[in-house]
Amino acid sequence: MTLDDRLDRIVGRALELEALLASGVSGEAFTQASREYGEIEPVVSRINALRAAEQEVRQAEAMLADPEMKELAEAELATLQETLPQLRQDVRLSMLPRDAADERSAILEVRPAAGGDEAALFASELFELYRRYADLRGWRFSIMDYDESELGGLRCGIAEITGKGVFARLKYESGVHRVQRVPATESQGRTHTSTVTVAVLPEAEEVDVTIDETDLRIDVYRASGAGGQHVNKTESAVRITHMPSGIVVTMQEEKSQHKNKAKAMKILRARLYERERAQAHESRAADRRSQVGTGDRSERIRTYNFPQGRVTDHRVNLTLYKIDRIMLGEIDDFVDALTQEEQAALLAAEGL
Predict the structure, then answer these.
(1) Which long-range contacts (CB under 8 A, 24 or more apart) does 279-288 make?
(2) Is the pTM of this model over 0.85?
(3) Are the C-beta atoms of residues 160 and 105 closer than 8 Å to each other?
């Protein structure tokens, strides 16, 4: 089937749905038709824009035979030939299968991996990088948990990032981030390599994940801070274990046990939702793995080399020599390149 045939089928289906909705249908049939029409209407709008431009091309080409209109027609054709490729690409992209989580807010988790104190220090810097990126995008960045080390590093940082399309922009950040630099504590001036893991999970609603209370073991204990000093004298910290999956979430950021439990449940829900998504999309992910990587937390995705002032994303082989700007949250160049790479892989898989 050619691309034009596929576009005809989409436009034809939209006309069928319009007629069905106008016929007075009600109940579940109306709900389903409305949902389907809402999904394909943006595609139809792009198809109509493309076909209108193609019609203008044909009209301008016909005008070339008229000496009086030739100059005007050539100018119109030049403009149209510039816009047509983008219109065709917009149509192709609008036909790609949608990730239902893309428009959602997200839960960000940052933890040091290999490298001891230096890894913890870089983890705190990465956490700040994402806070700044959220500010640049106009998103709300709310810290859910922040466990600081004795030297001012980060043992674990969890934040809720709220806004439109957060997950679509941040999902590529999941993985191992490697830093190469001379630590402040290094007397010999040697460059050390450390790693930090980042996980970005789409925020889940209660309707997305069913959690049976009988599957949970909830322990409460006294919260403690750096060096083992007690933050408060009540048992406000909460540890929730989801026994079927083995997922454990601890939370002690708040002084209220109730608030800590609510935060822990939000994180647990996000982790279970992501687990279900990963299982459901495993076959599709296998096809895309060679394109943009798995997004798995064990995969090294990016290297920050401070002595050379460069940051390299290994999935798209993109190196930028502006590490200072990147650490201030300016990561859109990487996000855009990864988005385009994934779109290209999906277009190829869909035969578009």
Answers:
(1) 287/345, 287/349, 288/342, 288/345, 288/346, 288/349
(2) no
(3) yes
Tokens found for residue 228? 């083992």
Task: Decide if 239 contacts 213 (C-beta within 8 A).
Answer: no
What single string gives the DSSP state of each residue in 254-309? Answer: SS-HHHHHHHHHHHHHHHHHHHHHHHHTHHHHHHHHHHH----TTSEEEEEETTTT
Q: What is the pLDDT of residue 185?
A: 67
The residue among 12, 2, 71 whose CA lies nearest residue 40 is: 12
Buried b (16+ CB within 10 A) or exposed e, 112-146: bbebebbbbbbbbebbbbbbebbeebebebeebbe
Q: What is the pLDDT of residues 291-332, one digit of tens each?
A: 344 444 456 899 999 999 999 999 999 999 999 999 999 999
| Distance set, CA 36 to CA 7, 39, 43, 335 (Å) | 16, 5, 12, 30
What six digits make up the tokens of 25?
């249908």
CA-based R_g, the chain, Å: 26
Place of tokens 């982790």: 271
Length of the chain: 352
**pLDDT at 284 exceeding the cut of 50:** no
pLDDT at position 328 is 95
Which pLDDT value is given to residue 225? 56
Given a cut of 90, whether residue 19 has pLDDT beyond it is: no
163 Rama class: left (phi>0) / alpha (psi -120 to 50) / beta:
left
Which residues partner with 193 through β-bridges? 180
